Amino acid sequence: MNLINEEITHNVFGEGSIVGHEDSVITVDFNKNLKKFVYPDAFENFITLNDRSIAKSLEEFFVKRKAEEKVLEKERKKEKEYQMLEHQRREKLKNHKIHESSQIVFWMDEEEQSDIFTDWQVSTGSIQSGKNKGQPNRVARLSANSASILTVRSSDQLETERLIHGIFMVDDTFSGNLGADGMVASDAEFRIRLTDQEAEQMPFWNYYVNKNYPERASWNSGKFRYFDNIWTAQILQDIISIKKDEEQIKEAERFLEHFCKMNALDIDNIPEADGILR
Predict the structure, then answer these.
(1) Alpha-carbon distance 93 to 73, whole Å?
(2) Which residues of 87-115 are buried (b: 16+ CB within 10 A; e: fewer)?
(3) What's the rounded Cα separation, in Å, for the pair 186 and 169?
(4) 35 near 27, Cβ under 8 Å?
(5) Domains located in the chain, CATH noted
(6) Cα dist from 187 to 123, 226, 239, whole Å
(7) Radius of gyration over alpha carbons of the chain, in Å?
(8) What is the DSSP letter of 126?
(9) Per-residue pLDDT tens over the stretch 198-237
(10) What are 237-246's contacts with CB under 8 Å, separation 24+?
(11) Strand 147-152, strand 103-107: pairing
(12) Calpha distance 268→234 (Å, rounded)
């Protein structure tokens, strides 16, 4: 707001005219006696604009500004709390020797879906070249705290159309070392399969972000990739929200509770999903 040449009254110096206004400072001429004041604080304490119309506009401006500052302060406080919780989470991970991306996502071929949801185990595929060609791909990060997310994208679909069809906790005896068959087995207690209708509400890219290429939805090659612990908790939260059957909801809630406990996550402070589709 341009206040240059506006007449004011100071509760000590009397009548004056604003002759300068730079950022947070105004300069007032009191009959050739120049004084500087902090803007806008001075108008809330000891300076009054003589023009009531301008004064009212300035008051409305201050009210709006205070409301905006209140919102910003709330956002800053929220961000500070989040950073504190994130620091605490990372310390917990460090103390419990848990990798922050110790989950795994599999790309299920259409022909193997039936077997996976019958046997509840999935292959890591095999090494394609080198001295270890033909041996199972190792998944060294996986352990009892890990979950496997099962996704599907057919050859005629875009990568952004990849959907989550199921999730299970890795068998609690798994230590990252695969047998000759290269299979990752599930924990019998924590398994969820989504219906086709439910899967339509669970796009994989709602959660996943490639930190090196945050705008790119690209799987490239390979049977699997590692996945962030928090993203997995977000998936479980959303599965709970789309389930209709009360028993299935309870099963998903038990899954989430167990998962958060195993991964040192605060179940009450899981951030909103922020994948590239969102």
Answers:
(1) 30
(2) eebeeebeeeebbebbbbbbbbeeeeeee
(3) 6
(4) yes
(5) 7-67 (no CATH), 101-262 (3.10.590)
(6) 15, 19, 18
(7) 30
(8) B
(9) 999 999 999 999 888 888 888 877 889 999 999 999 999 9
(10) 237/270, 238/201, 238/202, 238/206, 238/273, 239/167, 239/192, 239/194, 239/198, 239/202, 242/198, 242/201, 242/202, 243/198
(11) parallel
(12) 12
- pLDDT by residue, tens only, the chain of 278 residues: 788 999 999 999 999 999 999 888 999 999 989 999 998 889 888 999 999 888 888 888 888 888 888 999 888 888 887 677 666 656 655 665 678 888 999 999 877 888 899 999 998 888 888 888 878 788 888 888 899 999 999 889 999 999 999 999 998 877 666 555 678 889 999 999 999 999 999 999 999 998 888 888 888 778 899 999 999 999 999 999 999 999 999 999 999 999 999 898 999 989 999 999 88
Work out the angle at residue 237's Cα, subtended by the Cα atoms of residues 154 and 112, and round it to the nearest 5 degrees: 25
Cα 269 to Cα 86: distance, rounded to the nearest angstrom:
10
**Residue 185 token pair:** 């087995």
Residue with tokens 């902090």: 38
**Site of tokens 């209709």:** 244
What CA–CA distances, in Å, run from 31 to 8, 12, 42? Answer: 12, 14, 19
Q: Which of 239, 243, 69 is nearest to 166 (CA)?
A: 239
Q: Which long-range contacts (CB under 8 A, 24 or more apart) does 63-66 make?
A: 65/40
The C-alpha atoms of residue 149 and residue 134 are separated, in whole angstroms, by 24
**The two three-digit tokens of residue 131, written as one number:** 């001295």
Cβ atoms of 143 and 184 within 8 Å: the answer is no
Half-sphere exposure (CA, 13 Å, Cβ side) for 58?
20
Q: How far apart are CA 267 and CA 259, in angstroms?
A: 9
**Helix boundaries (H) for the chain:** 41-45, 52-95, 113-119, 196-199, 229-242, 246-262
